[in-house]
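PROTEIN DATA CARD
Card holder: Hydroxyacylglutathione hydrolase
Chain length: 255
Origin: Cereibacter johrii
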Amino acid sequence: MPLELVTVPCLSDNYAFLVHDAATGETSVVDVPEAGPILKALEERGWRLSQILLTHHHSDHVAGVEELRAATGARVAGAAADAHRLPPLDLELAEGCRVQVGASEGRVIEVPGHTVGHIAFHFPDSALAFTGDSLMAMGCGRLFEGTAEAMWQSLRKLSALPPETLICSGHEYAASNARFAATLEPDSPMLIFRVGSIAAARKEGRPTVPSHLSDELATNPFLRAGEAGVKAALGMMDAGDAEVFAEIRRRKDKF
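Structure generated from the sequence above:
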């Protein structure tokens, strides 16, 4: 059976994600911006938390870890490369490592760019990928530590996942990201439709996360740096894909 997914809004625009294996009763959470909303979601469902998975070290993804660990006894897993600046880890992870949620196995993918030690978690049997601040709905994370080339290679890894994969990213940024995307491909029917869908969801107070990878491939400009139409819009027809990605990121930073 696929994992049950619960999206938990935290802080002002963050998300944590509960994943639950009904057969075994095991539950994990990906990222802990704050403990309170996660504890409430667990209590409402009668679930016991056994594992905390961390994508990266930024405080808006780990600030609630110690409170949640103390309340639940959950083990904490995160990137070995960032162990020195994450909460104390029970399990250190790197590319290709496996994590278990009940009977479901997830694979660790190293996705540097936003931070140098950023990781993602892919659970293929449930078509779920937890990408933190690497690949996001209609966008990607700012390059606080890594290079444009590193982030582009990270996004290529994530782009290669099955298109039906749900991308569970860390923030509610889709509306702003969509407005920016429309400046690059204003005549794209798929983008026009998605911009409208995102606007309607936000007006009704509904989250835009998670999103399907197929929609990101069709409309997210940061995944489309290799597309001829995007290169033409930027006046960069002869540029390499990573160079085009860097220009898109530069423009978004000023948007």
